[in-house]
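Lab notebook, bench 4. The sequencing result for the construct came back, and we need a structural model before the next group meeting so we can plan mutations. Quick request posted to the team channel:

Model the 3D structure of this chain.
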Amino acid sequence: MKALLLSDFSYPLQGGTERHVTGVAEYLAANGIEVHVLSPARKTEGNCSYLVNGVRVHKFKLPLMDTFIVRFFAYLFYSVCICLRYGIDVLEGFYTMTAIIPTAICSRILGKKYIATLFEWELFDWQRKSFWKWPLTRWSFGSADRITTIGPSFQHKMEKEFPGKKIECITNWIDDKVFLSNKKFKKRKRGGNILFLGRLVRDKGIYVLLSALGMLRGPLKFRLTLAGPPVEEEKVKKEGKELGILNRIEFRGFVDDKELPGLYANCDILVFPSVLRGGMAFVVMEAMAYGKPVVCSDDTGLREGVGDAGIIVSKGNPRELSNAIKRVLTDEKLYERLSKNALNRANNVFREDKQLPKYLEIYREFSKQ
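Done. Here's the predicted structure in token form:
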């Protein structure tokens, strides 16, 4: 069987969407499926095709004027070409309508099986505002041979939107290597170490976190580690200095996968104050696999994923975030309960072998038809 995955985000690996798409691609490839991935080229890339971990990656360069229409026709043209050249059997469109709609059209033109994967309900729901995108969006999902979502609430909403359509929930997952790594670290004495993993930008809630910690600079001892692309590092340093907490912040910059185990093991809690919408973040799940309580902003995907392993606070509310961080760091019984729940939830819900085989099952089912 040969599959083509279309996504605005894939290789090189950077954020959560890329991790999901590349994880699915490499898992399918490791299980005997010839996998191709089609994505727009980065600024430093041109039109190119290369092999990564058994996956054939195809990149197309976009013009300076990058619009929905431009991406739509680029995806449609290149996906048809790849299908015809390599004899693709199944197509799957991920996340954005710029990738999903062309996937649906290409599959119907060529008579191929087609999977639509939804990461955020809002991305689907927003299309209702457009008189021409909405009919295309509904048709794209309605004509799919299978719809997958990364959260149960997304699944239930899509089931109401498309009664009778087969819709499956396949969440993000924790790589088995994370569970192996967490056993290498000895239990350490807690010391108020807070970890933030993500781009240093406003959308990730970094300034909300700084404001929250500024309220804790008195008797509570804490140390904040910031790890992720330092997009707005100078602004963050300025804000930290004004709040009087700059001397309690460690800037790690972008970190690779080899550094993550140490960061998780040496922190006491993970704080994820993002104001964006989305599914269950990989970094949140991985911290839970190390038994770390999570304090995060209220979002459907996070609320469902974290469950009883952390504290959920309102988005953009530094006072509420500050109180939650203080509670977790100072209440011993609460900390131990959240830590135990985090480990149990990571093991019982988010293990790789509980999620990725669902994708393989769909593809194998299609191969028999």
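The mean pLDDT is 91.
Will bring this to the meeting.
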